[in-house]
Amino acid sequence: MLALMGSLLPAAALAAYPDRPVKLVVALAPGGPADTAARVFAPYFAEQLGQNVVIENRTGASSVIGTESVVRSPPDGYTLLFGSSSSFAVNPAVMKNLRFDVQKDLKLVGLVSYTPHVLVVRSSLAAGSLAELIALARARPGKLTYASSGAGGAIHLASELFKREAGVDLVHVPYRGGGPAVMGLLTGDVDVFINDASTTVENVRAGKLKALAMAWSKRSPLLPEVPTFAELGLPAVISSSWFGLAAPVETPADVIGRLAAAMPQVFASPGYQARLEKLGLEQFALNPEQSAAFIKAEFDKWAAVAKSANIQVE
Length: 314
Known about the structure:
Elements: H1 2-15, E1 22-26, H2 33-49, E2 53-57, H3 64-71, E3 79-84, H4 85-94, H5 102-105, E4 106-122, H6 130-139, E5 145-148, H7 154-166, E6 171-174, H8 178-186, E7 192-196, H9 197-205, E8 209-214, E9 240-248, H10 253-267, H11 270-279, E10 282-283, H12 288-308
Parallel strand pairs: 1-2, 1-3, 5-6, 5-7
Antiparallel strand pairs: 3-9, 4-7, 4-8, 4-9, 4-10
Helix pairs in contact: 2-10, 2-11, 4-12
């Protein structure tokens, strides 16, 4: 009888999950796209789990510090990573001395949302289309500049992907974050910026920046008049900032299943969908196999770009 009771305890414990608040670790700064996506997602996720879901921002080292904190946390389902493309694909592609392996040390629960990247230029630049920008860059090799939110980050790699596919020579000017990079463009200190559509759209609508191409497979409802790179002859230029939920790899399968089962219910909520649309975020609609394939393809793409552009972060 005691043996039988002992065998039932783990199942009973799992059946009660979660019985206390669940923490989502956002490894990037408050107010940025990852933080915004997490704060939209959390209350609807909490409703489905029947427990509070709290956000903890643990920033530093391009999301490495926050990601590692989840890798090292107890695998009980109460500390989860609300990670970004940096956590899952970009950092592993450019950082050779990581003390963990995202593929082996984290278990993906599911992909959540994304914001496609858009190429914008300062309003005074003599380029009103992507073709004109490419022609200008080819006529003045090494003279035009592009901003990034930091060396070795997703925006840096997206810009190098564009350079490679367009065959142009632009000079990299790294900033300490997306906000300062936008200011550099607005003040005319740099010429070109590939950035999240969700955080760029207002400056485009206000006429402060010119949007020339969307780096996604389809046009964005945020800027429906902006053509995709594919429409303009550069189909390989696809990039976005995307977000997903993961847990330490040893987290019990029942707990992962409970978390994963809650996500479609969140996605189906009209309130959640309305908030995503308002913020310029778009919802993933991928099953687990498609999600894993998406992340692998992202890693392979950025590893190839990093190699060709000789980008490596210690």
